[in-house]
Amino acid sequence: MRFLAAALLLALCCLHTSQALCFNGQCQLRQICLRSADCATGLFCSTCVANGDLLPRCHRYTATNVTDVRGGLPFNKYAWLTTHNSFAIVGAPSHTGEPIVTFENQEDSIMDQLNNGVRGLMLDMYDFLGDVWLCHSFGGICYNFTAFEPVINTLKGIEGFLSANPTEIVTIFIEDYVRSPNGLTKVFTDAGLKKYWFPVSMMPKNGEDWPTITEMVAKNYRLLVFTSDMTKEASEGIAYNWRYVNENQYGNGGMKTGQCPNRGESAAMNAKSRSLVLMNFFRDNPVQLEACKYNSAPLQAMLPVCYAAAGNRWPNFLAVDFYKRSDGGGTFNALDTLNAGLLCGCSDINVCKLNLPFGVCNTSSSTKPP
């Protein structure tokens, strides 16, 4: 540890001639920093050793507010950052009395995720201890050492966010192991979220556009909930995920160079009967220190592959582990690329601010993927 610290100080001293040292909020993207307070707004100080860079640099951790870039479009004309296993947080306290010994996929609270621009949450829900819990499992069974917390805690936090941000829309994807009758209905009702519920009856079922963001906000339909259990659509009015969303393979199978196959439960990626596309990009076994590598160039390279696989449609949801980790702009730059394609048919989201006709760009970008 002392050797690494000494090496870092030496590197900083040697580099000061090529980059003027910056402090107190003046450091820009990828500039060397000593602490997060040195970085400009929307950036934090971290390293990406997995990419061979030992130096701490300012990396991006907040999303562009795309409705400020171009508002009022159908919901499926936007892309939303989604966290895989949003609840499986590094250092989360145990609520069972036993230490948590299982995979971790994120590093900050769900409230911080939402405040940083995450709008899609993947939550694994189980019957456990007479309640509904967020949990990993072995063989579909939740244990004391894989359980994180009762889902009501998280859902109440989401309700607080929606209440405090009346123009925001949140999507929840449930990996559903709840078998208690109306178990999900009860917990969503108890959390006060039913008043935001987007009705299944209004969801497009043949590839049509979704209502516009403006319409959804006006009607307070600001919570979309999808379940992996197809029976819940009839029994509890919770949309069956793959009736509305095309989704690529999760885990290592979804990260093979040049391939973007659908997961087994989903229709083909290019099936036009679904208006939404979800792109997974995370490893089978999450490792926080390696996430910065995968959330950088490999993620950006996969975007046009999934665009082509989905019938020349940009994904609407981008699901990752450790969403803040990258070697620079990471998942947020990738999200900007998706939204640039969706909003104005260009590769640079800044062009979309010019309100030019769709596909007309003031750079070499076009409707084709970069």
TrEMBL record:
Keyword hit for Signal: yes
Keywords in alphabetical order: Signal
Signal peptide: 1-20
Pfam families cross-referenced by the UniProt entry: PI-PLC_cat
SUPFAM superfamilies: PLC-like phosphodiesterases
Highest taxon above the source species: Eukaryota
A biological process term (GO) from this entry: lipid metabolic process
InterPro entries: PI-PLC_domain, PLC-like_Pdiesterase_TIM-brl
MF annotations from Gene Ontology: phosphoric diester hydrolase activity
PANTHER family tied to this protein: PLC-LIKE PHOSPHODIESTERASE (PTHR13593:SF140), PTHR13593
Name used for this protein in its record: PI-PLC X domain-containing protein
